[in-house]
Structures are given as structure tokens and as C-alpha cells.
Amino acid sequence: MVMPLLAACGPEPSEAMPMTYTCCEALDVDRPYQPGQTLTVDWTVESPEEPGGTPPQVELAALLTGPFATVGDLKAATEDTTTPTVPGLVTFAATPVRPSGMPDERPVSTIVIGPDAKPGYYNLVTSVVEDGNTVSGASIIQVVPMP
Fold this sequence. Notes:
Elements: H1 2-8, E1 20-22, H2 26-29, E2 38-42, E3 44-46, E4 58-68, H3 71-79, E5 90-93, E6 108-112, E7 120-130, E8 133-143
């Protein structure tokens, strides 16, 4: 009778914190790109202090939309909730990445900027989709003309 009572008094198993994924390293976004180049999104991974549990079913996505003539035009277009149609916009998308959840994993999304991409400012939208919930962020990328 003593054994079941002692087992019931032990510490409750703690639920491990899930891995978190965020975009991106400064080197990914803080530089100009040219048409035909590849934008690399190096996802930042924060692992839980105590590994355990089932690896999350996560999808990492990245989209690049533009060009906008100015940063102000880009911000105005993305803040407008009526979603106006801006003529001449194109979108370049990375293939979705589904990380395995391994502690040392470094997921990367790549977006090939089309060789005919026009110079201007592009909206980089990154998303983490997990269990039907989406967390998104945005950065501004500048595409400059070929020399």
C-alpha cells in the first residue's frame, strides 16, 4: 500500500515548451538584392530548455511582394484593410519548409527573385503555421537595378 501512495506524491510531469521559429537574421534583410538573386531566410530557432514531447507540426512560409516605389507606398498598401489592387505587383514565394523539430536544425527558406523583377521596395512576409494558428511578420527588402 505504501508504493502507490509514494508514486502519487511524486512531481507531476512538466509539459515541455515547444520550439519557436522566428524570421530572420539581419544579414537576410538588411541588404539590397538584384533581379535574379536568391533571398535566403535563415529562420531563428529557440529550443526549449528541456527537450521532450512530440516535435511540433510546423510550416514556415515566406512571400516577397512588390515592387513599391517608396517605403511609404509599401506601408500604406499593407496597412489598408480594404486590400486595394495595386497594379504591377508580383509575388515570389519560397517552398514551404516543414522542420523536423531536431534541436540543432537550422531551417532555411529561399526565394528566387525573378530575373525580370522591377527595382523598388518589396514586402517580405514570413509566417509560422502551427496547429491551425498563424503568426506572421514582415520586413522590407529593396531590389536594385542590375549594374
